[in-house]
Prior knowledge:
Helices cover 50% and strands 17% of the residues.
Amino acid sequence: xxxxxxxxxxxxxxxxxxxxxxxLKTKGFSLVGEAQSGExxxxxxxxxxxxxxxxxxxxxxxxxxxxxxxIRNDRLPVDIIMITAARDAKTVQELxxxxxxxxxxxxxxxxxxxxALENYARSRKKLTNKTELKQNDIDEYYRxxxxxxxxxxxxxxxxxxxxxxxxxxxxxxxVTAEQLAQNTGMARVTVRKYLDYLASISEVKIDLKYGTVxxxxxxxxx
Length: 222
């Protein structure tokens, strides 16, 4: 699968470099351009046709909100994640209404940046893998888009979750909770708890394999 093409719109050179370094550390994404003004960004979008824009609110010529309106009015086929210091409720609400996929408030850690991009990649995949969607497909897309941005349930943490999902990606084939526990060095009951949560939000698939006797064995895969 081709990398998701990203344009970064940021007028602060230091912040721009940080965002670029974060992007380069995130698998499945490639930088196709950068812009430090709204006008430059608009022309870069039309010229380079990125899949995703990381957009700052405060630009030297027009605001990120004005650029967002222009992109939507001209129906340019691009998705947008806001990365900005603007945190007033009115602005966040307006950008949510316009369809911002996510909203990162500066300063933020790499883990939050990575989470936003990985959530976007998963949601994008749900829409682009099929030419026609059923109601269940659409329901799953919206459910996961919002559920992935919520805090994890009590008793689960992001670090352990990432270790488990990273190992599933690395193995890249169905495994049992016991096999995954051996690969991660974690307790089987802990791994099963995370896998069952991921299955409940449709982030992993469960396949049942029946033996000659007893209960079927659960195999988990992304």
